[in-house]
């Protein structure tokens, strides 16, 4: 689909044959945006936001806690105040970085069919991430554990519309110095999708890189040649890059791996209260982080990112799916295209439970990301409480919303047979098409089949228990987990880490840096 | 907002001053679409659907049960088979109708501030309509009554984002021959928004027109000059116009009042299973109905309309907010623009309760209508069970979703002060903007204030009862109804009908035709 002036078609990539079971031209695995990117600001305002962001970097600077990062900036000509740890970055440094940062790169996966080309026009959904807690209606709300992490990774694997993994539930029962082992091995043992690692210090990052090389049997060159693992880098808004984040930007860049730069600029809290102001601060911080990756290794893959929204004025909590969130997302897309980089946005929910509020918030936010043509949409399924909990029932309900969006990436056929004059001629006025040959040829595959939506009438629905979609989702995730089997190759890939992890654990693991 | 190439600004109309209490540039009362219309089909496919629809009219014809309608078609040159009641309509008749049907017209209301210009680019939300039942969590599900109709009309009046009234809940406790009195007087007594009447026969329609003239103190010319009342015309798909619908098209047209033509083409049931086929059938039926209005009175206001979606293959029920529904809506918008008429679309929900499913369905459908640039979006709030019940809690939750869309019609400011370099310079790295003058000047009005969303954290939310948004909505509608006061002028307008209704009732009311 596209705008009236020129329709953009989903691009198919090699190896992505249609499913044999379904002749429907559906491809959730690699998606291209169907809609023309929409805007919230004039082009003049976008240029002014970009120029102001540069001015912030030049005149105000970014506090950069990591000495190595300050040194990289200084070597490139930035003005560094060591005492105040402030780095003032010139426009030339930013311009150079935007020249070398690649507009398109490949993200590898255990299963080649799950590879992604990360570029403007691509569309990827990522699950709710960074949650310290998990919640489901069977076992209640609880701090995340390794079991929960394994379950949520299994849920992510089970739905093709989730394109990359994420740190859904923090496994708090695993010591932090060993947690990177558990999180990466879990991902590799249960999923063949692109993997994630936290940037929590140099040793953890390098051990993750080594585990990836071991799991996939890669030499250094093959590893460096593509993105095999990614991290999310949140700046400390306003205008601060902390030690593990700076270290992560440097280490992932040097390893040729992906940093998704994501300032979390809440308008009215850590950022100006205006959408334009929050975006401008976000943009300056993102440009600084992107520059750092390119100073560490020119050409390193990096994603621009936006997570600007507003605070709720009653509670002070972050809000999602609000008008301001959508406007910020649209503006962020304009800024990303202004600098020519692929970018991430986010949907998500502030609701405390899988209810109508949570569904409205996440569906609204996801549509905003679609209209903004975000390359990747994080927190697209399962994110409750503004990220403080991953919800199992929420995940299932959100899958319905984003599968619907994924379906829109395939245009409906408009050929003569689909228009169907003969079919229409074959049914008398007031008749029906149930038994029409035109229907019979297509009925098994014509329509999207819901995951959790129940369309039975009120009587049938009442007789079957009068369940809400959250009640039904509880059964669905249990069934999915009960039937879950790790895909081919997972056991082998994960098994290749056993010895490394055993040795690392014996050596005390790797410290986290803060 | 708009696309990158040229931003379309909300157009302000006279008298729509900003609210004095809020300096925020919000105008829910008259909205203009912020996004560029998106498409589902190529222009060639749209032209082929239009041509096929004409071919259906020419070669297959429309069964037209009302003799007066057949006579109008025949007089215009259509080929009429009286025995089979089939009317074959030539392209010239359609082309003539599309030349005279106005692309823009004014819809009047009790309050001039609630007037609408019905044209491409305008955006109006209409409530869930046509429901035989109502449901709320206090009193349960029940057949609609006059009390329910009064309550739902009050709810429609209470939210500016609802632009026109509708037959939310059928007052089944009022005899059908008197029901038009009760429904119109209720609307006039409780609301100053544009009013609706069912097309259930000539006498009922004419009595409704007379009541409108009495209520607003209009002579015949003043009444005929603008749209004061509208009706929805559903064809009997496939290819049939029944007696009350044809009569309504003729009577409303001759009175200069609005028919919103809405074939209900469920792909796989009353229409071909393909989106293109369902739309083509819809288009042919709509063109026939539009032609009838223009034969009755050239220049009569008429709205193209779409309500094509798919059936659920498990239950046979109509589905809403599905990929097929959104694709059909996008295609319908292309067809409407192809013929140059304003048009209605619909969101709605098949869920049996206000839950995550219902919220996802309606939010998805409403975004689809936004992207398709529908002039009016029917069933945008409160529609459950595919229209078999109007839900009070659903209405409140849907209001949140569509108010968010309404907010998007106002672009965020992008001036230098909003970009806020000085504000950013005034906050140290790692600090916050809570006390920034930039924030203090704006915090009361910067953000959309939710109706039902609760953004408190899990602890506070749990302490306050752990309510879902549906639970909270139950309190909200009770508060809204408890505080409801009919707007100025309503009592006078409605009171002017008393004598007419008393006399009409004494005379036995007006029969419905079928």
> Which parts of chain A are unreliable, with pLDDT below 50 for 5 consecutive residues or more?
2-23
Question: Looking at the structure, what is the overall shape of chain A?
Answer: globular
**Helix segment count of chain A?**
19
Structure class of chain A? alpha/beta
Descriptive account of the structure:
The structure is a homodimer of 514-residue chains. Chain A is of the alpha/beta class. Helix content of chain A is 42%, strand content 13%. Chain A has 19 helices and 22 strands. In chain A, the strands form five sheets. An eight-stranded mixed sheet of chain A has the order 2-9-20-19-17-15-13-12. A four-stranded mixed sheet of chain A has the order 5-6-4-14. In chain A, strands 11-10-22-21 form a four-stranded mixed sheet. In chain A, helix 1 (43-60) crosses helix 9, helix 9 (275-296) runs parallel beside helix 10 and helix 10 (323-339) runs parallel beside helix 11. Chain A is globular, with a radius of gyration of 23 Å. The first copy, chain A, starts with a strand and ends in an 8-residue tail after the last helix. Chains A and B meet through strand 1, strand 3, helix 1, helix 9 and helix 10 of A and strand 1, strand 4, helix 1, helix 9 and helix 10 of B.
């Amino acid at each position: 689909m596209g705008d009236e002036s020129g329709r953009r078609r989903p691009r198919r990539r090699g190896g992505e044959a249609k499913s044999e079971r379904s002749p429907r031209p559906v491809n959730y695995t690699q998606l291209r945006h169907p809609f023309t990117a929409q805007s919230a600001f004039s082009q003049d305002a976008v240029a002014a936001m970009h120029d102001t962001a540069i001015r912030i970097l030049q005149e105000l600077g970014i506090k950069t806690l990591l000495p190595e990062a300050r040194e990289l900036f200084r070597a490139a000509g930035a003005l560094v105040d060591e005492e105040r740890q402030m780095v003032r970055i010139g426009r030339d440094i930013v311009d150079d970085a935007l020249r070398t940062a690649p507009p398109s790169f490949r993200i590898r996966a255990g299963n080649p069919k799950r590879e992604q080309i990360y570029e403007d026009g691509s569309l990827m959904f990522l699950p709710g991430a960074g949650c310290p807690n998990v919640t489901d209606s069977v076992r209640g709300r609880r701090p995340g554990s390794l079991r929960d992490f394994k379950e949520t990774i299994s849920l992510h694997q089970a739905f093709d519309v989730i394109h990359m993994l994420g740190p859904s539930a923090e496994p708090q029962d695993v010591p932090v110095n060993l947690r990177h082992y558990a999180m990466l091995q879990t991902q590799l043992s249960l999923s063949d999708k692109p993997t994630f690692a936290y940037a929590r210090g140099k040793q953890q990052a390098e051990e993750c890189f080594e585990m990836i090389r071991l799991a996939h049997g890669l030499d250094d060159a093959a590893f460096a040649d593509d993105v095999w693992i990614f991290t999310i880098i949140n700046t400390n808004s306003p205008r601060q890059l902390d030690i593990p984040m700076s270290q992560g930007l440097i280490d992932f860049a040097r390893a040729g791996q992906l940093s998704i730069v994501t300032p979390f600029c809440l308008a009215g809290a850590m950022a100006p209260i205006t959408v334009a102001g929050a975006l401008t601060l976000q943009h300056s911080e993102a440009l600084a982080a992107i520059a750092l990756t390119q100073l560490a290794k020119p050409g390193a893959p990096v994603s621009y990112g936006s997570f600007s929204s507003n605070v709720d004025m009653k509670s002070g909590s972050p809000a999602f799916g609000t008008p301001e969130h959508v406007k910020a997302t649209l503006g962020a897309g304009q800024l990303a295209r202004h600098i020519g980089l692929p970018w991430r946005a986010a949907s998500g929910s502030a609701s405390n439970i899988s209810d109508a509020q949570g569904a409205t918030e996440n569906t609204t936010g996801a549509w905003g990301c679609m209209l903004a043509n975000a390359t990747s949409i994080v927190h697209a399924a399962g994110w409750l409480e503004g990220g403080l909990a991953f919800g199992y029932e929420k995940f299932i309900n959100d899958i319905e919303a984003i599968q619907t969006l994924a379906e829109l990436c395939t245009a409906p056929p408009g050929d003569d047979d689909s228009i169907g004059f003969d079919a229409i001629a074959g049914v008398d006025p007031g008749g029906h098409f149930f038994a029409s040959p035109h229907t019979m040829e297509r009925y098994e595959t014509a329509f999207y089949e819901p995951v959790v939506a129940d369309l039975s009438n009120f009587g049938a629905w009442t007789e079957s228990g009068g369940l809400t979609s959250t009640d039904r989702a509880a059964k669905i995730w249990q069934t999915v987990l009960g039937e879950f089997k790790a895909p081919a190759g997972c056991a082998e890939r994960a098994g290749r880490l056993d010895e490394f992890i055993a040795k690392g654990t014996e050596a005390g693991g790797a410290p986290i840096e803060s």
